[in-house]
Amino acid sequence: MAALIAILVGVLYASATYLVLRRRTFPVILGVTLAAYATNLFLLASGRVAASRPPIIEEGATGYADPLPQALVLTAIVISFGMTAFLVVLAIRARVEIGTDEVDGAYAGDDDREDDRERAERDDAAERVERADAAGAEAGGGGPAK
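Given the sequence above, the corresponding structure tokens read:
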């Protein structure tokens, strides 16, 4: 049984590493979650959890189950849930702000975001000038000033 758990922990960590190295944010979040699962399984397996022993020492009991591994796993579950929620919110915010869900933040096919920003600002400025000229023409101010 210990060998099976060790193989399962290894497969989970290998899958987590593969997913964390992806370019998109969703597989990275899944990879971090898988790594948390692998860590929880490792902590639980290393604590030698015994189902036949009572968790509290009773009179006449020959032994008791160690509560430390269960406490560590419970704490790790809470921390991994909070971390996953934070990563999801961070990924959604990055998607809204940057416009892509790639980890490095680059646009697909265009690595130079500064040029895109400058181009958008020029287009916005040209649009404002056109609207101002159109408003001036409607008011009877004639054409655009030269």
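The chain has a mean pLDDT of 82. Try to locate this feature in the token string yourself.
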